[in-house]
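Appendix C: a fully annotated inverse folding record. The material below is reproduced so that readers can follow the format used throughout the book. The structure is listed first as tokens, followed by the designed sequence.
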């Protein structure tokens, strides 16, 4: 049994960055974790976004097995100024998402199964309200999102080119 003593709140909610990369099926031997930490993962390219976002993980039971329903919501403002939007191809793919929280913690979602994405667009009712696109990623995993000590530890290469063009086509 682990003891946990009540602590003063010193953390801040929210997400300040996220890294996105397309889901690719790997053998179970290519991905390792220890408790809630990712310890082995194949190297690859990730695309960085600076934005506002949130995440939620909720446990569920199906047929006696425990799962975590994972949700990541990202808000992208000022991404288009044209009427012709086409993100169909992007929405048809599965993704993995790495979040950097406002507490500088890195979490990977969709580690083993990937995540689906839905997009929505909102104008808001005033200048203070959100105006832009929301990307909502959902997935189901056996474990919670896994912590990552550093992107460098897994040889992730951060792509610096703009992957969003003026038509909100994701060039991945």
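Designed amino acids, in order:
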């Amino acid at each position: 049994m682990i003891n946990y003593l009540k602590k003063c709140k010193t953390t801040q909610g929210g997400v300040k960055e996220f890294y996105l990369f397309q889901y690719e099926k790997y053998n179970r031997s290519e991905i390792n974790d220890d408790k809630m930490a990712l310890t082995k993962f194949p190297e690859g390219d990730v695309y960085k976004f600076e934005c506002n976002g949130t995440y939620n993980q909720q446990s569920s039971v199906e047929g006696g097995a425990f799962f975590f329903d994972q949700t990541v919501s990202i808000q992208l403002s000022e991404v288009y100024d044209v009427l012709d939007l086409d993100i169909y191809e992007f929405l048809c793919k599965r993704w993995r998402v790495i979040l950097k929280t406002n507490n500088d913690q890195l979490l990977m979602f969709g580690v083993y199964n990937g995540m689906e994405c839905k997009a929505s667009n909102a104008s808001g009712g005033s200048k203070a309200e959100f105006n832009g696109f929301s990307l909502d990623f959902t997935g189901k995993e056996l474990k919670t999102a896994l912590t990552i000590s550093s992107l460098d530890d897994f040889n992730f290469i951060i792509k610096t080119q703009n992957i969003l063009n003026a038509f909100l086509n994701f060039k991945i």
